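Appendix B. Extra example for self-study. Work through it before the problem class; the solution is given directly after the inputs so you can check yourself.
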Amino acid sequence: MIKIGIVGGTGYTGVELLRILATHPQAQLTAITSRKEDGVPVAQMYPSLRGRVDLAFSSPDKANLNACDVVFFATPHGVAMAQARELLDNGVKVIDLAADFRMQDVAQFEKWYGMEHSCKDLLSEAVYGLPELNREKIKKARLIGNPGCYPTTMQLGFAPLLKAGVIDAGNLIADCKSGVSGAGRKAEIGILFSETSDSFKAYGVAGHRHTPETIEQLQTMTDKEVSLLFTPHLVPMIRGMHSTLYAQLNQDISNEALQALFEDAYKDEQFIDVMPFGSHPETRSTRASNMLRIALHRPGNGKHVVVLVVQDNLVKGASGQAVQCMNIMFGLAEETGLQHVPINP
Amino acid sequence: MIKIGIVGGTGYTGVELLRILATHPQAQLTAITSRKEDGVPVAQMYPSLRGRVDLAFSSPDKANLNACDVVFFATPHGVAMAQARELLDNGVKVIDLAADFRMQDVAQFEKWYGMEHSCKDLLSEAVYGLPELNREKIKKARLIGNPGCYPTTMQLGFAPLLKAGVIDAGNLIADCKSGVSGAGRKAEIGILFSETSDSFKAYGVAGHRHTPETIEQLQTMTDKEVSLLFTPHLVPMIRGMHSTLYAQLNQDISNEALQALFEDAYKDEQFIDVMPFGSHPETRSTRASNMLRIALHRPGNGKHVVVLVVQDNLVKGASGQAVQCMNIMFGLAEETGLQHVPINP
Amino acid sequence: MIKIGIVGGTGYTGVELLRILATHPQAQLTAITSRKEDGVPVAQMYPSLRGRVDLAFSSPDKANLNACDVVFFATPHGVAMAQARELLDNGVKVIDLAADFRMQDVAQFEKWYGMEHSCKDLLSEAVYGLPELNREKIKKARLIGNPGCYPTTMQLGFAPLLKAGVIDAGNLIADCKSGVSGAGRKAEIGILFSETSDSFKAYGVAGHRHTPETIEQLQTMTDKEVSLLFTPHLVPMIRGMHSTLYAQLNQDISNEALQALFEDAYKDEQFIDVMPFGSHPETRSTRASNMLRIALHRPGNGKHVVVLVVQDNLVKGASGQAVQCMNIMFGLAEETGLQHVPINP
Amino acid sequence: MIKIGIVGGTGYTGVELLRILATHPQAQLTAITSRKEDGVPVAQMYPSLRGRVDLAFSSPDKANLNACDVVFFATPHGVAMAQARELLDNGVKVIDLAADFRMQDVAQFEKWYGMEHSCKDLLSEAVYGLPELNREKIKKARLIGNPGCYPTTMQLGFAPLLKAGVIDAGNLIADCKSGVSGAGRKAEIGILFSETSDSFKAYGVAGHRHTPETIEQLQTMTDKEVSLLFTPHLVPMIRGMHSTLYAQLNQDISNEALQALFEDAYKDEQFIDVMPFGSHPETRSTRASNMLRIALHRPGNGKHVVVLVVQDNLVKGASGQAVQCMNIMFGLAEETGLQHVPINP
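Solution. Structure tokens for the complete assembly:
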């Protein structure tokens, strides 16, 4: 059994970790911290976990995280970087669901997250936790920067095209849509039911933190300079993410060959489903599961390829992906504890 | 492995059976019938099942249901009664998710369902499939009438009070609310998104089929004549059912004693959660799981007890309960394949 | 033109007042206060009002409310009672959308609202602003306590029955359901989209402030002692309220006679629609309008009458009713500025 | 008063016309046809119209449409073309909300709508009913092809840029999102609440009928050849449309100059709101009103301009625009009957 600690388990990625780990056959949840909820049973805050999670939240100073095998940070940006060093020194692996260890470019991090990076020396050993693109490094990693939700879809959707060199890397557009849970569990008026239900909007159009993270990764796939225009939108649904990716083909290539690029790239992946060419995946086809689905289109058989990518932002886009990384790091079968069938309807 | 057939798998209870059985360790899905979808892979109709269910729908005449150990009917009312006899004669157990075998009173059935009962002789051996109230009979049953969704909540909510004789059986009120999936997967204008979203209404107030079914069961719990006023409502949510039950106390009884009635009645039940007195359960705390949660209230410490009951109408209210019955009938641990943690958020 | 001030215009009843008054032919909006938003144009906070409302919020000390003809308080409970005296002394009429002037029973107010009433002497002249039941007093009023949303539906639904003496006043049950906007525009986790969408729950079952308000009013309609069991629920929709009222008949009475009680009571009312006996009104049939619809049922032709009442909680349940009161107080046609057709779909 | 007929008033554009016309001071609704609902009072089908619309549906043969001043077709494609000739010959103006008279290119029409055009000779006098771009022609028109919902947003969003020649006409991308009401009021499983709620998807990515309609209009604005990639998506909300438009700048131009292009183009328009540069309009800011809002972005001050356009698909995207055309055709002030303030929340 893997002894697991969770720092900051009161948000949505935290409770989703708890849901997944509650039925993970190798997981032994040993500590979950929350400064504000010290002593409160987890199941009191989240009645969905009554009878399934017996632990109470404990304040960070009381929890003995150093005795864990792995600690997940489901915290705001900036927390993991303050605590990772000590944990690693005690032989504890660290998986950060926030942004602290996602980007190698410290200047970009500091610009977009508005804080100094207090743990730069660990960055070089931090591994970007996207298993389908980075599995070998994850196997040996002690410290994982778990990808952002949007970047997961953009990378997995553009990767086969970029690696094959069939699109113009300098002109990528990603029009992405997320459910409201992506904004977190915070007392903010902008994400109230009455403010977001029955409405739709874009946000962060001028610039969003997930752009530099994604570009840094996409750049590793090609010699050409990557330029990405990323536009996030808010959908009145709880979970789910849909990315509509636009790329211009730089050569004559058949639809079959495009489809083959994706099927080859992901043929051994359990959590990536390349659907038949021309499909329209719905976000709900991945709801509450670790699946990500991809479908290709070639409107008017023209110069653009359109890639549709869907996932559950809290699972493959966050906590499921983190558990997938944990499984890899500990030599478990990658799908262990992650075989939830999507909920439909 | 239990060889399983599903008749009529294209509706919501059908696809929910498929979701549950896909990870049930003892279930071997061998046939699923649909006249209209003959030959269509299940996963084509339900992309959420891609990679998880390999079967195709087959027309009823082609499917060899007689070779199954158990057949579920996820069909409209009236189908199971036409086919149950032959299956039973071939040693196949039958679980009907429709109403054909729920009620012993044929006249009531025929009045409320508007059809003649074509298989009356089997009714006497049909067992009402509510495990928490009828477990011993289910163990030996060949033929199960799986309870309606509303009746499940009303029975489990009133039972401890009725059995203890502390309420007036002649004056029960059940104000119940269901998500839209309870209306099924039918091409009807009344359940379109644009017709039901952002709105709320009652329906069937003058009389609903679940009233006689519930009264027949409640009557077995008391010598007094049961009278029940049941009002269903439609909630703009996909899944979930909330029943607000009102009963008048006929004696002086403390809140602690009331609470104890419920805790005692359900202390060994894995799928019934008696919450602390005065709790307000949310339907989402049971979402996509087989849990049913109950909380008691005593407004103003007056003469009424109010029982709040929540469940997922498609799971404990339908397909989960059916699998729970199957587990009991085949001697499996009752929770086998039913340990999904509710989805939150 | 009526010069109008609004105190606390940043909440949902405030912005709804602004929407209604923007097309009211006799309304001249002259001041709107908000301590926090001083100087911010209303239309910046509410883009829906761009081009329709030119005013900016001003801090209370800067706004010259004494120059208004009427001031609406769309504030938390306790604000109007502190300012009403001065306004009245300056000849300004006051309509409070909060609870300060709804109840004559100070002890009940202080118990349920947890604050001392600082303006008890004005209570005796305060008029309860439910026009259909209190029109004559509203005509002459200087100070209005605008009814709560739930109480509006309960009073209008029970009144014809109570006044005719055909029901048992001592055993009223009101199972009520409200859209989330009823909880206001506050930064609270409990009303986030991800917490309330796709779920349903009861709240305040043990006791709710709207019970004493409603009982105080219902008691004026009958000599018998009124007892009311009121259970509020939260529906995942923005606007709308549905009250399901249960009463026991104390005499033999035909359905036609019951229906006639309502049709007679409301035959001259423009904002009350008594639907055909046995109808199931949807909340959306009143969306964004000042209409309230009522339908009667007699399940099984038994001893209970069930009254279904729907309204938009922000209009007839709050701001629309307040404007209706204003129209009456200033001698305008009651429907002035309130003829919005409900939005469907 | 203008005598008005509506053909096919049972769909969403029909009932929205009824809502708008019910308070239009110059409109006299004289006939509304529906083959299936002959004799049924409109208010019985749409309780939201109780007390506001007294008419009953009549079958087309009984309705004397020739006595109207104008007839709206709120019908499926193909109906208006069969009846327009006779109406025009009788001096009745015609406004078709379907596609019959939107496109001059018959071949494109027949390809995309899968039917022969039975009234080609009238096409040359048909006027495309987008007032902000075509007002002078609408003034004199007898026959209007009312624009599609998506095309309205794409044209109004691209027009100032295309006309000024500052973008590459050959590389336009429109990523558009619509509420479910855009799919109409049809008994189809794909638009059930349980199928569309809490999910998001693209559709028609390979090609959609609104592309040729839009290109035909955009082409009139520039000498360059227009190429448009249009991707529609379905949002789980009733009303609302959000178009995210991407264009590449072909010259050095400041953000101020871009903004000025839009402010100048629409400075006299009552129904177009050019928001401050960098705004994020929400669809709800136009809910149930005839407003369309536009905001410009220049991500990273790069080569792309991103135009965000929102409207209510049933108002400015359909019935409101049709009434706006009617007002122009009959010499009324353009805003007559269209001054609804958007509903918020």
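Self-check: The CA atoms of residues 273 and 293 of chain B lie 5 Å apart. If your reasoning did not lead you there, revisit section 3.
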